[in-house]
Amino acid sequence: MSKASGGALGFLHKSHIVAEPGYNRWRVPPASIAIHLCIGSVYAWSVFNPPLTRELGVVASSAEDWSLSSVVWIFSVAIVFLGLAAAFAGKWLEEVGPRMVGVVAAILWGGGFIIGSFGISTHQLWLLYLGYGVLGGCGLGLGYVSPVSTLIRWFPDRRGMATGMAIMGFGGGAMIATPVKGWLLEMFQKAPDFLGAQDAVATIVENGRVFAETAAGRVEVVIATAAQAAPFGGEAGVYVIGTGNTGAAGTFMTLGVVYFIVMILAAFQYRVPAPNWKPAGWEPKPVASGMVSQNHVHIDQALKTPQFWQLWIMLCFNVTAGIGVIGVAKTMMSEIFGSVMPLIVTAAFASTYVFMISVFNMVGRFFWASTSDYIGRKATYTCFFALGTLLYLSIPYFASAVATNPAIIYLIGFYIATMIIFSMYGGGFATIPAYLADMFGTMHVGGIHGRLLTAWSLAGVLGPLAITSLREMSVNSAIRDLASRVDAAAFAERFGAPLAQLDQLVAARTVTIARLMEIAPAGTIDPTPSLYNTTMYCMAALLVVGFIANMMMRPVKEHHHHDAPAAARVPGE
């Protein structure tokens, strides 16, 4: 037994889980799929955005509630640590085996939810970042690499199918998680104390915050519309801050326990094949020529090739464009179409939209990876970037058009465009390992893939940063434009403060676009549907850069090959 197999967790070491002769390899894929379904729920993060941004106000955001931009960053941190953990766990995985890595992943992912639950209940944002973001993100990375690596060894004859099953599970995780999270939130939620209709309750505004006098003294309140209060069984009016529950803390705790149990059970189903094992009657077939290399490139040498960095840019920008939209998908659908089509785009409709994102993300992984076997990886990525650019540019058109003419055709166009985008987002992940194998051979493709996933880490920052910062700029610009149009007296009457205090009122979330539209002059176009236009233009520009990087792709030069003389290697070529 090796030194690495000792210690308290030694029984999990790969030396103890070598499959006996005759072991049915088809017992391994279900365990891999189960782990990827658990960690793939990260794609349903946007379901948590609304409750987390009104955790104190519950029916509406209060001054002390977390902003959307601060909450979205939790998702970003998780993706960053996913990529970093995947990049650095490859060597450790080879040393200890998939079972130990799977168990550690279960502890980190499940424990991350539990720590996040304490962060929500105590309203400590840093605990959410630490739990779900850092620890949970590491669990994501470890859980991501362990099944893929194991299945490649068990299915050398059906590598694409086997890894596709696991990666499809990751893409489809949100398909299960979205309705489950919604159900748990409803089960744990509680409406805050209702003081009465807005006209029946005397309120005062201080430093942008709204207060009401009650028999128990002055309390801070939020004023909710009928639409905001309806999901809690309430009505429009004044609600006391801190007396309700969005259900987020209970949901996090429940999911943490369930994910831990499922992932632990799945990890204990892992077995590794004996050395030199191969399926009965199977012999490796020679690969084709052209853009598919018959040679191998060492992992350290791969980083010295321009091809690695071209692929890194391609993955980073393809993921940046998709991940930024995924993180705020439910919010975006509600803001673009909810205000102009309230009877169609309800909360349930937005949740279904998130569910369909997961479906297309999952299906796209099989569809595009299979397509690449016929048309080639380069041609497949050309489709991603060329078609994706056109689709991102179409979103501002649909958003602007529906603001002036709320026809359902624009909603349908937006829906179709975004679904194709999300299928290509998932397809990018499924196709990139094959692209790497084509360029660098199969000897070190697992390690090279792990290092390439650092592009995912950067994209997890760039995407949400771009979409939230650009949206915030658009929101502030829209509020100032609307404020310049409304009557000053009507503004003061509605918000209890003069226009001169606009910045304070906006910072306290007392003044919003929706509330300004209530006193805007007749004929004023609601700017909400156009809040994401600038973001979509930026995402399209990123895809153009990725398109250029892909078009410049050429086979790796011979001096980088593993069997090439060291003196002949020229770094950087």
What features would you describe in this structure?
- There is one protein chain.
- By secondary structure, this protein is mainly alpha-helical.
- Helices cover 62% and strands 4% of the residues.
- It has helices at residues 28-39, 49-52, 68-96, 98-121, 125-154, 159-188, 226-229, 248-267, 299-302, 306-327, 329-338, 347-375, 377-404, 408-440, 445-452, 454-485, 488-495, 502-507, 513-517, 533-551; strands at residues 194-196, 203-206, 209-214, 217-224, 237-240.
- It has a 5-stranded antiparallel β-sheet with strand order 1-5-4-3-2.
- A hairpin with a 2-residue loop joins strand 2 (203-206) and strand 3 (209-214).
- The two termini are 43 Å apart.
- 50% of the residues are buried.
Number of strands: 5
Question: How much strand content do the residues show?
Answer: under 5%
Shape, principal axes of CA atoms: globular
User: Oligomeric form of this entry?
Assistant: single chain
Question: Taking all residues together, what is the mean pLDDT?
Answer: 85
The neighbouring-strand order within the major sheet is 1-5-4-3-2
Q: In whole angstroms, how far apart are the ends?
A: 43 Å
Structural class: mainly alpha
Largest sheet: 5 strands, antiparallel
Radius of gyration: 26 Å
The unreliable regions are: 1-6, 565-573
Q: How helical, in percent, are the residues?
A: 55-70%
Order of helices and strands: HHHHHHEEEEHEHHHHHHHHHHHHH
What's the total helix number? 20
